[in-house]
Amino acid sequence: MCMNPEGASSPRAAVRREGRVTINDIAALTGVAASTVSRALSRPDRVNRVTRERIQAAARELNYVPNTQAQALSSGRTETVALLVSDATNPFYFGLIRGAQQQLRAAGHALLLIDTEDSAELENHLLHKVRRSVDGVILAASRLPEQTLSVIAAELPVVTVNRNVPRVRSVVIDSPDGVMQAVEHLVSLGHRAIAYVAGPPSSWANEARWRAMRTAMARHGLTAARVGPFGVSRSSGSVAADALLNTGATAGVTFNDLLAIGILQRLAERGVDVPGEISVVGCDDIFGADFCSPPLTTLTAPIEQAGRVAVSMLLDHLEHLGETPSRQTVLLPTHLTIRQSSGPAPRR
């Protein structure tokens, strides 16, 4: 007796009853080996055109969805990249995340975002936890010791952002040059007593900015004061503002914009005029820096571009494992954006 093509004995009907479609189902429908189906779907160039097209048509007909876990096991790739940030609520990272995600999506990869809560211990723990689930990692503002980073980079493809470690690929935003621009700006306005409001002591960028500030001040025969370290959140601005005032400085260059905005709020509470009595300069030009009160003079950084470049470097690393990289470090320029929080030094 002739059965209906879509009847109980039909391969299509059997697949529909049993649920998830596998390569074995496609093999049964097309009359080829499962290994041929696997090659046609994962490495189509290794299967002749007629067979490949028949297999692909059957896969579409059966609504076949690839098993990404199985593909990862066979290829060693998950097509997922982890991006580790020290604080996902910090607006600095918004552009970085957006740039990285756009670049990864264009390459057919997924982004796994991890917040390390500004903890080197947690960062190290999470890196070891996800290392088998991702193809590589982008570490933004890593708090890990240099030696630990070097060991991790020898075992897992890594690109750092704002952290320069020998033999580790990195994207560095040139905020030290921006700090020098800020010092030149303030000195041109008559400021001679300028203080650096420091961020976390474990931050590579923090120390790089402090060195740049001392160098820039020395060019004018001046000595920079330093207060801190402070947390990188706006709430840290209150104690930072009080410490800045205690130095007697007429201007302060802060580690980041969140800290600078917190300082502006505290100075307003204390009735200190900005920039009439003291000028404040931030770093990063985050969302909100241009409409705080007063609008913040700050270093504008190509944050979104840094995310895209980091992904490009990591994907190039994955394609050329074991080879000497064409680019070890990419340096992205910054520029000073002058707003109303900086002005002429007060007459004393």
UniProtKB/TrEMBL annotation:
Residues 21-75 form the HTH lacI-type domain. Pfam families: LacI, Peripla_BP_3. This is LacI family transcriptional regulator. The keyword Transcription regulation applies. PANTHER family: LACI-RELATED TRANSCRIPTIONAL REPRESSOR (PTHR30146), TRANSCRIPTIONAL REGULATORY PROTEIN (PTHR30146:SF138). The keyword Mitochondrion does not apply. Keywords: DNA-binding, Transcription, Transcription regulation. GO terms for molecular function: DNA-binding transcription factor activity; transcription cis-regulatory region binding. Gene3D superfamilies: 3.40.50.2300, lambda repressor-like DNA-binding domains (1.10.260.40). CDD domains: HTH_LacI (cd01392), PBP1_LacI_sugar_binding-like (cd06267). It comes from Micromonospora acroterricola. InterPro entries: HTH_LacI, LacI/GalR-like_sensor, Lambda_DNA-bd_dom_sf, Peripla_BP_I. The lineage of its organism: Bacteria, Bacillati, Actinomycetota, Actinomycetes, Micromonosporales.
